[in-house]
Structures are given as structure tokens and as C-alpha cells.
Design a protein that fits this description.
7 helices; Jelly Rolls; 373 residues; 2 domains
């Protein structure tokens, strides 16, 4: 009988020692594998500013470390290997909407409430390849300022994003440029879910021209006054300078952060809503704005249009004003392009989805000619 150790057990032979080592190593491996499995499945919070994401549009840092934005069309693009993805989000108005697209196809629209909430964005069972994801702000500043804090990811991985195009467009305008009522629903009272900046003529043009685009637009406002004849609110020359917010609460935008090749201004509908404005006042304000645009972006080509809603005498007068503006600025890189009239349908006077597409198609040849794109 073999000798006993201090505990009274027989001493193991060399073979037993080897078998015990193998057992312990195997046990450690399976414990490690299970731990890793649970770690992969556990949702991971990733600060929005720390993710491999490309941002298009005006944003500002929020006090809690996130990113805030108000203008429609602000987009976050990245590549994900699959899994479940959500985002911690909040809207000051509680009626903001984000659109989610995967590999160029629309997936869903998501409402952002007033309280902080983790909003589910997508669930991709395919973990083999990378899927390009685009999150787009569909609504306007006056409907709510949105803040994103953390992405919440389960199982999948965020991969290096695709680079944005070097071509850059700045669209200035009102509710039409913002995409109001594109997703109208028969029999439904108008609500913020009707807005869809992603299908607006400006973003459609950017798609075809393979360009970035910033939509700097505000429903109900004009060049010198609002649709209801107010001059105490920020109009185009003011909100052109905003990153996010309004009036005295606005965060100012640093123009050097985005240098457009093309600036497209479609303003005037709301100025003419209370009646035809006085010519000298209107032309002088537009000239001043163009001078500011030229100081900020010396190399940009600037295109002015009257927009698709006005008709009759109002349209003719605004066209005359715009031509006088171009004559006074005397700038070889400032152009006028006429807009055909589109007056919506029986549900809403704003252009429909099909009319936005038609607007983009009609503007496209002129913009290609001007830009050489």
C-alpha cells in the first residue's frame, strides 16, 4: 500500500497528476468560454461621441456628454456586424422622430419621448457581415431638440464607418426644405410623424449628386418675417448661424466646421404669406445675407430659388426681387434657378413625397450644370 500524505490520502501517481492537470485546464477553459459568452450577450453602453460613427449635420455637445441637434436631416452613419442596437435618447418636445435605414433601405421610424429612454433601433440576426446603418432626424427644431447619449449594443460589433463624400451642400429654407407632411396619412390629424426630412428634395438631390448635405431650415419662418407677419423671431439670417436651439438660447455654429461647395437658398414663401413685402426692405435683407454667406464660404456657388408653393403675382414679384438681389451682389458664382409650382394635395398644401422627388429631378440638371458634378 502506498504511503499517505499528511491528510491521510494516498499519494497520487504521475499518471493521476497528469489527468488532474488536464481536468483543471479543461474546467478553466469552459469557465472562461461561458464568461466570454455572457459578456458578449450583455448589453454594452457606448457613448455616442466615442463610437466609430460619422455625423452629418449640425450638432452641439450636451451637458451630459451626449450630442444634441434640432435641424432635420442630421444623420449618424456607421457599420454594425449584427445584433441588437438601441440608443439612449431624449427630445425636449417629446414628439421628435428618427428614421432608421439599413443598407440603404428604410427600416422604421422611432418616436423620441421627452424623458430619457433607451429606444430600440434594430435587430440584425446576421452577424457574418457588416451592415451600413443610418439614423436620420426626421422632424424640425421647433418640434424638439434631440439628445443622444449612449448607443446600447448586444452581441454585435460597431465597425469602422464609411467615409462621407467630399462634396458638400448647404440647403437653406423653410418647412418645405425640412420635409413637412411628406408622410401624410389620410383620415389622420396632422402630427409630427408626417415629417420626413430623409425624403425631402434636398436629401434626394444629395443622394444623386453623391454629396453631403446640411438642412438648415425652419418651418413658418422666412427671410425677414414669419408666415404670420412676426419679426420678433429668428428668421433665416439668424438661424443660419445656429448649431442647435433658438433665439437667445441657441448654440452658435462655427461655419468653419462645414465648408459647402453649393449653397441652395429656397426662402420667401412665408415672407409673402401676409402679403407682398416692400421691395427695398426685402432686397436689402437678401443682399446682406448673401454677403454674409460669401464671407463665410468664399469658394461656394450660391443658388437662389423662390420655392414651389407661390404662384401668380406673388411668384412673379419674388422672382423679380431675387433677380435684383443677384444684380446688386454682382457675384459670378451666384445664380437663380426657377422652381415649378407644387401645392400639395387635399390632405396638406405642402408638397407630397412624389412632388419632392419631382422637384429634385427638375433641379438636378441645373445644379449639375452649375457645379460640374
Amino acid at each position: 500500500m502506498g504511503q499517505c500524505n499528511a491528510a491521510g490520502y494516498p499519494r497520487s501517481s504521475g499518471v493521476v497528476n497528469v489527468l488532474m492537470r488536464i481536468l483543471l485546464v479543461s474546467l478553466a477553459f469552459w469557465i472562461s468560454a461561458c464568461t466570454q459568452l455572457f459578456a458578449v450577450n450583455k448589453p454594452t453602453e457606448i457613448p455616442v461621441k466615442d463610437t466609430p460613427v460619422v455625423v452629418m449635420g449640425r450638432t452641439a455637445d450636451s451637458a451630459d456628454g451626449g450630442l444634441s441637434f434640432g435641424y432635420p436631416g442630421v444623420s449618424f452613419s456607421f457599420v454594425v456586424s449584427g445584433g441588437q442596437l438601441g440608443v439612449q435618447a431624449q427630445s425636449s418636445g417629446g414628439s421628435s422622430w428618427l428614421g432608421v435605414r439599413v443598407d440603404g433601405e428604410h427600416v422604421r421610424k422611432v418616436r423620441i419621448p421627452a424623458e430619457w429612454t433607451t429606444v430600440d433601433l434594430l435587430n440584425l440576426p446576421d452577424k457574418l457581415g457588416g451592415h451600413r446603418v443610418e439614423i436620420v432626424h426626421l422632424t424640425e427644431s421647433w418640434q424638439g431638440m434631440v439628445t443622444l447619449r449612449n448607443f446600447v449594443l448586444s452581441e454585435g460589433r460597431l465597425l469602422p464607418p464609411h467615409a462621407l463624400s467630399s462634396r458638400k451642400i448647404l440647403m437653406l429654407g423653410d418647412s418645405i426644405t425640412c420635409g413637412e407632411a411628406i408622410d401624410r396619412v389620410p383620415g389622420e390629424n396632422k402630427n409630427s410623424a408626417w415629417w420626413n426630412a430623409r425624403e425631402s428634395y434636398g436629401m434626394l438631390l444629395a443622394d444623386v449628386l453623391a454629396a453631403q448635405v446640411h438642412l438648415v431650415c425652419w418651418g413658418g419662418r422666412g427671410l425677414i418675417r414669419t408666415w404670420d407677419n412676426r419679426t420678433d423671431q429668428a428668421n433665416l439670417a439668424d438661424f443660419y448661424g445656429y448649431a442647435v436651439g433658438d433665439g437667445e438660447q441657441a448654440v452658435q455654429w462655427e461655419q468653419s466646421r462645414y465648408t459647402p461647395d453649393l449653397i441652395f437658398s429656397a426662402i420667401g414663401t412665408n415672407d409673402f404669406s401676409p402679403g407682398i413685402p416692400q421691395k427695398e426692405t426685402y432686397v436689402a435683407a437678401y443682399v446682406k445675407l448673401l454677403q454674409q454667406l460669401r464671407r463665410d464660404h468664399p469658394a461656394a456657388r450660391i443658388v437662389l430659388t423662390e420655392g414651389p408653393l407661390l404662384g401668380g403675382r406673388e411668384k412673379s414679384v419674388l422672382q423679380t426681387y431675387i433677380r435684383d438681389v443677384i444684380k446688386q451682389v454682382n457675384d459670378a458664382d451666384t445664380y437663380y434657378v426657377e422652381s415649378r409650382q407644387y401645392t400639395g394635395d387635399e390632405l396638406d398644401f405642402h408638397p407630397t413625397r412624389a412632388q419632392h422627388k419631382a422637384m429634385a429631378e427638375e433641379l438636378l440638371p441645373e445644379l449639375r450644370r452649375i457645379m460640374g458634378w
